[in-house]
């Protein structure tokens, strides 16, 4: 059956159609996969991207591997916070591990800008500095000693040696209240010139940057693993650790947690936390690790 519209009704329909027409045109311009002059298009390629591109964790909102437990902490590279610090001029520090979380030492990164400097550590505090980038000058007595990347310096408690950087530098610093009662001495060196030490059943390469005598209440080890190498001993010991992954990636086991880790990540290990590492990926791992080696466990 056909209807014939009366003239006013036909007019109303025509008006309605005219009103709706622009919306229909807009609807056609809703962005699809194909770009149009008005629309850049969507991109769904991430869904079927090649598996070898792997996961894209680059600044995923709110995501962090960082974790904080009573016997260990992982401070992912994404979680550092730099701020001004007493004694550091034109520099900021990120205190990654400190007595504030139960450690017997402080471990921090210092980001020194041009024309920056650092006063000596507080009285009674010893300091170890590893240069990660740039150059610093140590004022040792009347001598200026320049340290480039991969070199280190140890300042015994009550040292009056200051640090400065003309063009900027990035440092890893360990500090602790000296507790050994001996006579530790100022020293500097280059990581690569420090001799490789025997490691028993372990396959990693080991260097210890401080003398292994009772004058020192901690040591700083450099450990190198080829991809696929791992700790043979599933370590549990009374010593504390402050670790910074300098190169490579792998899996760190801490207690009952297994963490994917990469260069820049830092780890705090409390006494007796079960610890184990496997180097993975296609390039070697190097990490630097604080260990309160010769400290008498009875004295804490
Ligand atoms: O010396 C150490 O305790 C060292 N091997 N620990 C570690 O790498 N987690
Ligand atoms: Mn250990």
From TrEMBL:
Record's keyword terms, sorted: Signal
Signal peptide: 1-27
GO molecular function, one term: ureidoglycine aminohydrolase activity
Pfam families (alphabetical): Cupin_2 (PF07883)
UniProt name for this protein: Cupin type-2 domain-containing protein
Span of domain Cupin type-2: 222-288
Native organism taxonomy: Eukaryota, Viridiplantae, Chlorophyta, core chlorophytes, Chlorophyceae
CDD domains referenced in this protein's UniProt entry, alphabetically: cupin_UGlyAH_C (cd02212)
Keyword Signal in record: yes
